[in-house]
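Dear Dr. K.,

Following up on our conversation at the group meeting, I've run the structure prediction for CheR-type methyltransferase domain-containing protein from Pannonibacter tanglangensis. I'm pasting the input sequence below exactly as I used it, so you can double-check it against your construct before we proceed with anything downstream. Let me know if the numbering doesn't match what you have in your notebook.
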Amino acid sequence: MSEATPATIERLSRRTGIAPDYIRDRLGPPAPGHGPGPAPALLADEAMIERVLVQETSFFRHAAQWTLLGSLLRDGSTFPARPLQVWSAGCATGEEVWSLAYLLQSLGSGASRILGSDISPTAIRIAARGTYTRLEAMGSFRDLPEFARNAFPRRSGESWSAPASLRSMVRFEVHNLLDPVPAALEGHPADLVFCRNLLIYFTEAATSQALARLAGAMRKGAILVLGAAESMRPTALFEPLEAAGATVWRRTAAAAGTGA
Ligand SMILES: C[S@@+](CC[C@H](N)C(=O)[O-])C[C@H]1O[C@@H](n2cnc3c(N)ncnc32)[C@H](O)[C@@H]1O
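The predicted structure tokens came back this morning:
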């Protein structure tokens, strides 16, 4: 049985930013005989949101972006000061965050701080546990680049648990990207923000609101990484930086509104 009435879909879309058509597809048609009626309880909303979310992710997903990021980190002009303040918004089950921690530590930036956030409490629990098992196919370790191959499980059934040195760099938090920036970033503008494969599900209005939120959390010159298949028009807030077959976005000096 689904409670996906038009009013419910509209409410969930306003809450998450996800487009109504996509929510409708994920939840299926309303149960027969379900009229407009009173709004379902908040708890039901949480459960429905979990059903709508797509938590597809893997370590070092989209190799070209990691190659570009590695060269920006090495050349020093994009990230002149260390340690770095990093935010992975919509980090799902955390593979992206642990990949960032591994890359930064291997480049000598092990004192950096990385915040991983997601709207899903279930995903954040898995992320914070930091233990992943290699599956036969399509698992967390399917995209490992050459430089990381030896550090992560190579055989199906083997597990990897984040070591203490990476755990000390990372914290996770349940956070809705449409809400004000997490308190952990207040007064600590981010040098690098990942927000990959999330805005593709958003309405246009929610995308603008989310980009304004992200911009508000970043210092001038900071880098925003979107999903490899996601693009945007250059705006007053972000300009493209292209190299090595990937595009990232540099925060301009323009002031960000709340977008709310
Ligand atoms: C497809 S996953 C992307 C994971 C990772 N960034 C990657 O590219 O591999 C999208 C994530 O966005 C999260 N998400 C969706 N709407 C959100 C919102 N309004 N605020 C925060 N996270 C959201 C989902 O829970 C999901 O974990």
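Two things stood out to me. Residues 196 and 227 are 4 Å apart (CA to CA). The two ends are 34 Å apart (CA to CA).

Best regards,
J.T.
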